[in-house]
Amino acid sequence: MPSLLHARARPVAILWLLVEGLSPAAAQDAETLLGQAIYAENCVECHMEDAGGDDIAPEIAGIPRNNIRRAMGGLEGMPEFELTAEEVAAVHAYLRTLDD
Ligand code: HEC
């Protein structure tokens, strides 16, 4: 898992430079897309497509950002992830779109 994240670090940095120059609405869309990509690569296998959870992992759709930040340190049954603050914000933005 960590090796995948490191391989992604440079494209993510470039994406964020682009985001800085976008209108607020476009930047928000880009942030959500980034969050979706991170989620698909690292989280979906346990938390499921709709972030509704299953018998492996709990529901995390719409979960507060602090809970995500805390979970990145690793939990019982969940590995540690090295996400930047921007990446955590992006995952948070994406998970909000899954909250119903
Ligand atoms: C190997 C399976 C697995 C993967 C992969 C995984 N999780 Fe988890 N996650 C869990 C389990 C199991 C828990 C419950 C741990 C506990 O309650 O102690 C959990 C808990 C959480 C929580 C805490 C929920 C709360 O109520 O505070 C958050 C947030 C979370 N995961 C986010 C993520 C994100 C974001 C990713 C991807 C970067 C991810 N998880 C990847 C298994 C996983």
Automatic annotation (TrEMBL):
Residues 30-100 form the Cytochrome c domain. SUPFAM superfamilies: Cytochrome c (SSF46626). Pfam families: Cytochrome_CBB3. GO terms for molecular function: electron transfer activity; heme binding; metal ion binding. Keywords: Heme, Iron, Metal-binding. InterPro entries: Cyt_c-like_dom (IPR009056), Cyt_c-like_dom_sf (IPR036909). This is Cytochrome C oxidase, cbb3-type, subunit III. It comes from Tropicimonas sediminicola.
